[in-house]
User: Fold these one by one.
Assistant:
Number 1:
Amino acid sequence: MSTDTNFFIGWYIKGKYRYTKSNEREYICPRNQKHEIDGAIANYCSICGSKITTRARLTPIVLDIYDIPEEVGCLEDAFIEPEYMSKENEVILISNYSLCGSYLQAFESNEIVDLSQDKQEKQYTEFMNRHGEDIKLLKEYVYDNVQLFYGAFVYYS
Ligand SMILES: [Zn+2]
């Protein structure tokens, strides 16, 4: 595997992970939840003999783009998530369409990037034309605090 160094300038999305309750159930000892249960096999707690019960699993699960209902849309190929860019509980997404107003190229490139206000605005329009609906889906179904930023960074892929 080779590692490419990518230089990104443009609009990117930042969001916070949203958590949801899991639908799974977990087995517990009703007398003491620290009693370890082999839920698949046991009917009674092997430590105190209480009858084992179940409850909704408390560990939350993180939503991702696959939680968007199929009939509403699919963002599978819309974005790239650059590795190691985001802080804890946060997600960074850039467009998967390299011509979507962003510069996404090998770092060796000696092209000078125009960062004028005009250019940024043009990139914004292109980004929103391509991803405006996607952003709505992200806000509704996947992440909290979805915002658009303009910036530059290097990431590896
Ligand atoms: Zn027990």
Number 2:
Amino acid sequence: MKEPQAFGQALQAKLEKFQAFKKPIQLGSIDFSSRLLLAPMAGICNLPYRLLMEDLGAGGTVSELISCHGINYGNQRTLEMLKIDPLEKNVGIQLFGEDAEAMARAAVVAETYGPKFLDINMGCPVNKVVSKGGGSALMKEIKNLAPLFEKVRSQIKIPLSIKIRTGWDASTLNAGEIIKIAKESGIEWVAIHGRTRTQQYTGLADWNFIENLNEIKKLPLIGNGDLHHPYGVSERLQNTQCDALMIARGALRNPFIFIESLDPSYANQKRSIFTGNDYWEVIQRLYFYVTETFPEERTSLVQLRKLIVWFAAGFPHAAAFRSQIFTCQVLSDTMKITEDYFKSLGDSQKFINYDEVFMSSGHG
Ligand SMILES: Cc1cc2nc3c(=O)[nH]c(=O)nc-3n(C[C@H](O)[C@H](O)[C@H](O)COP(=O)(O)O)c2cc1C
């Protein structure tokens, strides 16, 4: 797609304020532009959203989980999900499945779409995936892992990574063992969500567990879980032994989290410099990416609406705005309502209630 229109001067100046804090890192053989990466999210981390998050400072991104069987059957919708835009810089494709042969065949196809790396989903807790032996069920049968990793590894040229949980349940916290197998099988780095499969999204991510894994330090490690606000991310970034951190849900309500977390003195203020006008600019860019990606108006509307509503979270009258936008079925009208709302916010501050449970389900 063509380059989007540049952000206005005011927003650009704010974004640049954080540039000096952005430090590139290398994981395995890949360079990422920051230690803060966007975590994969099904139904969310599609091409437009990934592009936007990279524009707003994510050091790298990962697609939503994509079925190896869907790829192998040539399912059109699945193949659409593999698409990457040349504007995307550091993007990986995540595959899920349970069978080494099928995963390897799908990996060959996925590689032709031009990602920088491929990732294997080993964290999805959803029954539909787990009951077939995929997602976090892969962590249960660790004897099958070396053959799976080696088979996929042998069929592709780009780096291969995995995303795991701490274990299946509290009595089988086998992430350390899996990391050892991964290293011996040619995996280049590991992302870990600090919960077990049984926990799904309940309780808190176990950061002690994640930090202790760094002591065995077999492979570069990306820590993930409950990094929802800039001050929490900033603190973790300063103290963690992890090479990088991944943020999922935090980026939905605060798309600026990747940069706001980089400057500790700023992050600790707990107040954002980004106004309703800045959000409106970001939404216009998202609109450009979404409509360039999805020619069908209905698809664009559905994709945009959910993200716009999350971006509004914490601003005054967000609930009324949400009801208004969800009753509108026309894309141009939706954008007009959105423009009016965000422009009306003036200098209002966004206050997100982080104690409230937010999105307690997902595929990893
Ligand atoms: C809606 C949603 C969809 C998700 N989809 C995926 C996925 O496709 N693949 C994956 O590995 N993890 C997936 N996850 C898990 C996240 O990547 C992340 O591990 C988890 O949300 C914890 O991080 P957070 O506290 O920053 O949200 C998903 C999470 C959510 C909330």
